[in-house]
Amino acid sequence: MNKITATATTILVLWVLVSMAAMFMPIEPNKIDLARVFAPPSLEEVMGHDELGRSVLARVVSGTKISFGIGFTVVGLAGFLGTAIGLYSGWKGGVVDLILVRVIDIFLAFPGILLAVALAGILGPGIGNVVIALAAVGWVGFARLARVQTLSLKQRDHVIISGALGTPPLIILLRHIVPLLMQPLIVEITFGIAGVIVAEAGLSFLGLGIQPPTASWGSMIKEGTRYMLVAPHLVIMPGLALMSVVIALNLLGDYIRDNLYGGDRIVS
C-alpha cells in the first residue's frame, strides 16, 4: 500500500471512529450561544461557531452519524436488492433477463441524482425517505454488475458440473457464484458509499434531505452559503469533511480494484 492510499485509509478509519463515537460523546450540536455568533475558528473552538453561536465542530461530528449511517444503510439495501436481481436475471436468461435488462436500462437512462431528487420530492424530507429514495436509485449499478458477472461465471466448468450433478440452482448460486462475485462487489460498495454520501449532502443542500436543526453536512453547507462573506468557515469546514471522506473512499476503492485482487479485471 502506497503512502497516498495509506493516508486515505487512515483518514477514513478516523472518520468512521468519529461517527461511532459521536453516539456516545457529550456534544451539543444544537446548543445556542448568542455571544459567539459567527465566531471564527480559534484554539478554543477549532471550527468556529455558526449564525446561532452553535459549535461547528460539534455539528460536523454529529453530521458524521447521518452521512455514514445513510451511506451504509443505502448501500446495504441497494446492494442486496440489486445483487439478487442481477443474479436472478443472469442465471435465468431468456425472457426474464430481457425484461429485467430493459428495466435496468430505463433507470440508467436518467441521471441517478435527478431520480433521487424526484423521489425525495414525492416522499418528502426526512432520513427514512432519503434512504428509500437513494436505495431505489442505487440498486441499478449492483444489478448490472451482478448480472454481467453471473453470465460469465455460470459458464465455468465447476458450475456446469454442479448443475449436471443435480445441485439445486439456489445452492449453485450461493456456493459457486456469490463467492466469486464478492471481489467486484466490494469495489462497487466502496464507490457506492462515496456516491451516497455525496447524494445525501446534495439532497440536504436542496432542502429535500435532512432538515434543520439536525446536523447534516449538506444542510450545514446550505445554511453557510448565506454568510459566505462574513463567515466562510461555515461552508469550508463541512465542505472539507465531505471532501476528505469522499476522496478517501475513492482512493481506497481504486486500490482495492487495482491491487488487492492481483489486478484481475472486473467484467462490466
Structure description:
With 268 residues, the protein is an all-alpha fold. It has a single domain, classed as Orthogonal Bundle (MetI-like fold), CATH 1.10.3720. The protein has nine helices and no strands. Helix 1 crosses helix 9, helix 2 packs parallel to helix 5 and helix 7 runs antiparallel to helix 9. The longest helix has 37 residues.
How does the SSE layout of this entry go?
Elements: H1 3-21, H2 56-92, H3 94-108, H4 112-123, H5 127-153, H6 157-164, H7 169-205, H8 217-224, H9 233-260
Largest sheet: none
In CATH terms, what is the fold-level topology? MetI-like fold
CATH homologous superfamily descriptor: MetI-like
Distance between the termini: 26 Å
By CATH reckoning, the class would read Mainly Alpha
Low-confidence stretches are 263-268
The number of helical elements comes to: 9
Number of strands: 0
Strand percentage: under 5%
Mean pLDDT: 88
- Please name the CATH architecture: Orthogonal Bundle
- Morphology call: elongated
**How large is the radius of gyration?**
22 Å
Q: Fraction of residues in helices? A: over 70%
Compute the number of structural domains. 1
Class by helix and strand content?
mainly alpha
Order of helices and strands: HHHHHHHHH
